[in-house]
Amino acid sequence: MPPYYTHLKPFRPLFAEGQPILMYHKLGPRPSGVRLKGLYISARLFGSQMRELRMAGFGSALPGEHAKGGQKVCITFDDGYVSVLRYGLPELLANGFRAIQYLVPGEIGGYNRWDVAEGEVAAPLMDKGQIRDWLDAGQVIGSHTLSHVWLTRVPLEQAREEVQASKKSLEDTFGVAIEHFCYPYGDWNPRIRDLVREAGYRTACTITPGINDANTDQWSLRRLLARYQSRSPRAVWRRITG
Fold this sequence. Notes:
By secondary structure, this protein is α/β, with parallel strands linked by helices. It contains 8 helices and 10 strands. Helix 7 (about 190-200) links the parallel strand 8 and strand 9. Helix 2 packs parallel to helix 3 (about 80-95). The radius of gyration is 17 Å and the shape is globular.
């Protein structure tokens, strides 16, 4: 399996085995000084990926719908960036896809404070009005904790609060059921998974690569990172040599 998703062809046999969940973060131009370059995908590439999936006959699904069968793909965005609304929503609507954004309710209308603390460039997060625009367009939201913490690195009671209070905050603010969760940084263990299940979420996504089928645990779903493919000689050499 290629290390990340750029186009359908190399993944087509894998997609036939179960439900693929694609993981995105930011769309559009990449600002100078960015450290985590792979979290940006150009609007052009994202549009090309959506058109390719549609033309291949794929429909959209939400996490955990792999048991329903059919040729479907789940499209997820972590954190709730404004760039997804600006560059991603038009392509989703044009190609008939429904996606989910995992939001950090303690930072709505703010920026990626957790990344900036590590030296990353600030990127704006959707405010309440923009999130309502996303919902009004038929898209979905889920929880990504209150403050984007490493759940296994904080006391268990704090982790429980992050999981439960984020769900309640989003439901109270936007009047929709919050049924899906995503572990920040992909950081989880069996005890954290149990907290998520006990909080009433139907699914939870990790960053473990792979495909999901009827036997996959609903609270440790696998995803495929979608990102650009560098054509630089150095990057090509790294791929060849592993």
